[in-house]
Amino acid sequence: LNSFITCAMVSDIGSGVPTSGSVLKAVIESGVNFIETSESYSNGRNETLIGNVIKNFERDRLFIATKAFPAMKLFKSSDDVIRRAEGSLKRLQTNYIDLYMVHQAQNTFRVKDDYFHKAAEILKKKEKIRFTGLSCHGPEWGPESSENLEDILMAAIDDGRFDVLFLPYNFLAPEMGERILKACKEHDIGTMIMKSNPILAYENYTSMMESGRNVNRTDQKYYEGLHEAMQEADSFFKKYNMND
């Protein structure tokens, strides 16, 4: 997380989604203070796990991020968002959430959800959240989508109401990520980078192609894109001795 934007002292890496209270406790004791979760992880039980651990630490030394994930990909109302935030606060056993995000914004329509933004204003005034953000893995699955990751996140930047964006960064094809990060910096928007393993995806798709199974057009096209990216990344692998 870009701590310059939020003026928060945040560790360079986060806890990941914790699945063990004892592991999370050890992670925090080792110096990691950024903890990220969602109301949708294990149907809220992940927030409960985190709450049971962080209550034993100084709250102002931690940076807690969670996300609202509406059914059918739409919030019903501003009250719906506030209700969700109150539920997260209760499960996390805290009086405030440092970063409250829209979970998996898969199109530009989600970016401009006024129900979320109106609720966020209310929650900020009540000091129940400090910052707002948006996470995005890319567009909705399927070849018919006309929007890509850059379209969605650039729309979020132009919207001007988000403090932080949470996105994947593909080191095999960094151009899009670099453009997004540059735009965020120019607009004083914080950034978080999520896990990405393009090499594993390429290996999985290569195995599928070599297995002789019937492959649909979408998978074929995706494999071709990965293959091209792997070839272009050869210099990267050589530079960091990753050829093995």
UniProtKB/TrEMBL annotation:
Record-annotated NADP-dependent oxidoreductase domain positions: 23-240
Entry protein name: NADP-dependent oxidoreductase domain-containing protein
Organism: marine sediment metagenome
